[in-house]
Amino acid sequence: MSGTAELLVDAPTLAAELAREDPPTLLDVRWRLAGPPGRDDYLAGHLPGAVFVDLDTALSGPPGPGGRHPLPDPGRLQDALRAAGVREGHPVVVYDGGDGLAAARAWWTLRWAGHRPVRVLVGGFPAWAADGHPVRPGDGTRPGPAPGDVTVRPGALPVLDAAAAAGLAEAGGALLDVRAPERYRGETEPIDPVAGHVPGAVNLPIRELLAGPGRPLPVADLRSRFAAAGIGPQVPVGAYCGSGVTAAQAVLALHLVGRTDVAMYVGSWSDWIADPDRPVATGPGGSSGS
User: Against a cut of 0.90, is the pTM above it?
Assistant: First the structure.
């Protein structure tokens, strides 16, 4: 079972680790769905020694038929991680602007790439700054980190494509749609051109798994929420959202309760609707729509 300390780190603990001779590698992955670019936040102030890594261009592939945030090309990801100083087997801590979304996607991407020692800073940059820990501005003139030597080995975490996601729901597994209920029901869709959900998917909004922005519920509470959603110990589980960012936060929560076998539908809804022949369900019970 994955322990909380293996997956999450709080600001005081991280501050103590950064004072050591060989501290963890820090990746600043601040990101907003509608912009502006997170690099502007990084330049304004970041954790000492942190390197900015862009979710859209490094941790994801180009948007297209595979969704808005598909899997990254392994070679490009390896180049980006090495440029950020990620070393083989060396601990990494990722943080974002506080909602935990980009940090969870970064955590998931590194784990999928075969790099296991990676944790998420709970509460992200705001939690660090609120505790009074040092912040450094970045003007782009300082030397970068020494190049890392990490090797990307894709496939270390399971993924679903559209066919596998549909098959999971049909076979009695739990396919979790972690978007807001109104998006799941097809009442509104602020981002993608088609509203609704994958037939057979169960709605478990990500907000129900959080104690606050970027802060997962205690493990006991997470177990209760997952059990209420029909996720028993032997039930196969997959998760999706709009484009594979929010779903990573649900995968992280499942890892916290020991479900390291959970698969993510990386293309998520933005991939599902790329094929007009795929069925779309609407309503609270997932009734088929046109």
Answer: yes
